[in-house]
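Try this one yourself first.
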C-alpha cells in the first residue's frame, strides 16, 4: 500500500530510542538480578508491582507483557505453535500460548531469551480466569507456589466491601513474600514507589491528551508501544521521567506542526487489546486513507478509576489503599455501563468520527459485550461503528484485506454522515 503519508510516530525520535533502551535494560536487569539470587515473582498485569519495591531484593516479570513483545517482534506464531505441539488448544489466549511455548518449548526464540524462572507466581482473576489456569500450569509443572488475588468484577464503582476484601489479600500477599523470601516489607519504600507511579500516570495522561488536537498529535499505535514500561518499570523514577519527556516531546512536535497523520480527516477510536503484529502496517495503511486511530480503550483506561478518564492521583498516605482502589482500572472487568461511560467521554473529548470494535479471538472477556456496546454507541451518539476480527498476538487469525474492507466501509459511513445522506 502507498506509504507516502506513513506516520513516523515516535519510532525514530528521542522517546522511541529511550523506550527501546528502557525495555532492553529492564529485561537485562531482571535476568542479571535473578542470576544473582533475587527473589523472582511472575505476575499478571493487574497485580500491583509497586508492592515489590517494599522489599530489598524482589524482582518481577509480567508474562503477558513478554508475550506482547514476542508478538510485536514477529515470533508470536512460532511460540504459539510450540505450545500447540504440546497439546494446548488454539482456542486458548495467544498470550498464554506464547508464554507456555516459551517456558516449555525453549526460550531461544524470545527477544528477551524468555523470563528467569519464578520463586512465586501471582495471578489475578480481575481480567479473566483463563490466566489463573495458565499460571497454575507452572505451579504444577515446577512446584512453584501460586497466589491468586481474587479481585471481584465491577459493574459499578468499587464497593467498600470489595475494597476491604482486596486490602486483606494484599496483607496476606505481603506476609507470603516475607515468609518465602526471608525479606521484610517496608511500607515507606512502597509509598515512594507509588508516588512515582502516580506521577508517571499523570504524565501518561498528558501524553494521551494530544489526541484532542486537530490533527491529532499522536496515534493510538504510539500509545500501544509506549505503554510497555508501565509493565516493566512500574514505580520507578525512570518511568516517571520517561513519560514526562514523552509528553514534552509530543507537545513540542505539535507546536512545530509535526503530526503522525498530517492530512488527517477521519479520527477513530479502537476498542480492544493492541494488534501487536500489525502496529506499523495498520497505522501506515490507515494514514494512506487519511485516517488515524487516535485513541484506544486499552490505553486510556490506564491509571483511571472505573469508567473514568482522568488519572487517580495518590494522596501520599497509604500506598496499599491507592493500589487497591485502582485494581479495577482495566476494561475487562467492567460491565457495559462503565465501559460506555469512559468511551463516550473519549469520543466527545477527542472528537472521534468512528469506532473500531476489534473482536479479539483470544480475549473473550474484552470482546463479549462489544456487539451490545456497538449498538449503544450507534443509538446514543449516532456514531458510525464497525466490528473487525483480530487476534492480538496470533497473526494466523487475522486477515488484513478483510479488515481493511471494513475500515474502508467505516470511512464511507463517516463521509455519508458528513454529507447528511441517510446511513
Ligand atoms: S484472555 Fe484477555 S484478559 Fe485473559 S490473559 Fe488473555 S488477553 Fe489477558
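Now uncover the answer:
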Amino acid at each position: 500500500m502507498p506509504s507516502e503519508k506513513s506516520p513516523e510516530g515516535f519510532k525514530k525520535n528521542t522517546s522511541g530510542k529511550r523506550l527501546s533502551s528502557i525495555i532492553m535494560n529492564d529485561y537485562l536487569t531482571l535476568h542479571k538480578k535473578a542470576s544473582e539470587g533475587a527473589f523472582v515473582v511472575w505476575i499478571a498485569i493487574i497485580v500491583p508491582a509497586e508492592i515489590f519495591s517494599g522489599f530489598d531484593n524482589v524482582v518481577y516479570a509480567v508474562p503477558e507483557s513478554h508475550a506482547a513483545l514476542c508478538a510485536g517482534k514477529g515470533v508470536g506464531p512460532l511460540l504459539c505453535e510450540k505450545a500447540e505441539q504440546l497439546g494446548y488448544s488454539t482456542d486458548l489466549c495467544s498470550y498464554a500460548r506464547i508464554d507456555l511455548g516459551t517456558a516449555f518449548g525453549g526460550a531461544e526464540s524470545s527477544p528477551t531469551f524468555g523470563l528467569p524462572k519464578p520463586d512465586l507466581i501471582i495471578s489475578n482473576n480481575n481480567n479473566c480466569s483463563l490466566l489463573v489456569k495458565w499460571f497454575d500450569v507452572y505451579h504444577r509443572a515446577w512446584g512453584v507456589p501460586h497466589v491468586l488475588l481474587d479481585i471481584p468484577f465491577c459493574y459499578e464503582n468499587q464497593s467498600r466491601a470489595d475494597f476491604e476484601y482486596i486490602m486483606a489479600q494484599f496483607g496476606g500477599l505481603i506476609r507470603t513474600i516475607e515468609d518465602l523470601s526471608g525479606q521484610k516489607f517496608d511500607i515507606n519504600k512502597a509509598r515512594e514507589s507509588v508516588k512515582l507511579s502516580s506521577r508517571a500516570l499523570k504524565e501518561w495522561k498528558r501524553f494521551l491528551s494530544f489526541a484532542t488536537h486537530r490533527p491529532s498529535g499522536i496515534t493510538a499505535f504510539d500509545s500501544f508501544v509506549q505503554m510497555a514500561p508501565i509493565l516493566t518499570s512500574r514505580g520507578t523514577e525512570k518511568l516517571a521521567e520517561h513519560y514526562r519527556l514523552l509528553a514534552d516531546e509530543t507537545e513540542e512536535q505539535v507546536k512545530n506542526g509535526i503530526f503522525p497523520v498530517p492530512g488527517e480527516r477521519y479520527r477513530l477510536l479502537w476498542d480492544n487489546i493492541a494488534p501487536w503484529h500489525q502496529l506499523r502496517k495498520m497505522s501506515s495503511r490507515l494514514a494512506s486513507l487519511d485516517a488515524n486511530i487516535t485513541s484506544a480503550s486499552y490505553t486510556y483506561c490506564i491509571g483511571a478509576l472505573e469508567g473514568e478518564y482522568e488519572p487517580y492521583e495518590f494522596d501520599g498516605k497509604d500506598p496499599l489503599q491507592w493500589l487497591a482502589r485502582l485494581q479495577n482500572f482495566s476494561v475487562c472487568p467492567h460491565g457495559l455501563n462503565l465501559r460506555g461511560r469512559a468511551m463516550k467521554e473519549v469520543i466527545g473529548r477527542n472528537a472521534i468520527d468512528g469506532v473500531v470494535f476489534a473482536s479479539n479471538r483470544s480475549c473473550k472477556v474484552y470482546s463479549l459485550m462489544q456487539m451490545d456496546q456497538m449498538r449503544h454507541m450507534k443509538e446514543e451518539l449516532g456514531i458510525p461503528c464497525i466490528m473487525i476480527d483480530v487476534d492480538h498476538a496470533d497473526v494466523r487469525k487475522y486477515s488484513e484485506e478483510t479488515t481493511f474492507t471494513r475500515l474502508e466501509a467505516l470511512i464511507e459511513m463517516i463521509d455519508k454522515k458528513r454529507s447528511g445522506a441517510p446511513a
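Discussion: The chain has two domains: 3-186, 189-419. The pocket of iron/sulfur cluster is lined by residues 64, 93, 95, 127-128, 130-131, 273, 332, 362-363, 365-366 (CB under 6 Å).
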